[in-house]
Specification:
mainly beta, 3-stranded antiparallel beta sheet, two-stranded antiparallel sheet
Length: about 110
Amino acid sequence: MRDLFGTLTAPHDLRWGRRRSVHSGMAPRYRCTACGNLTRFDVRAVRRTSSFHHYTVGGELTVEEERVLEERVEWVGCRWCGAEGDAIQAIELEPSEGGADATVEP
């Protein structure tokens, strides 16, 4: 889910106007084989979620208890060099590194 600033947010406790990041283990790590980039990628994904929307009397929204029911990564591109497709690898983390196995669909 993206917040007001377009930042990808963790699947819980989203408050409008706050920037937050996805913790490792919640999303795969990527590596660009063309330039070596490990940190900046454009990711297009489809998500189906379930959430509780809580509005204050003043109309301010807080999204709580959001759960990702299904997620599919459609495309990943390198922000540094523009490479995509086979040039982008999903890094499989060892269980001791706190991550889960990840794959990228072509």
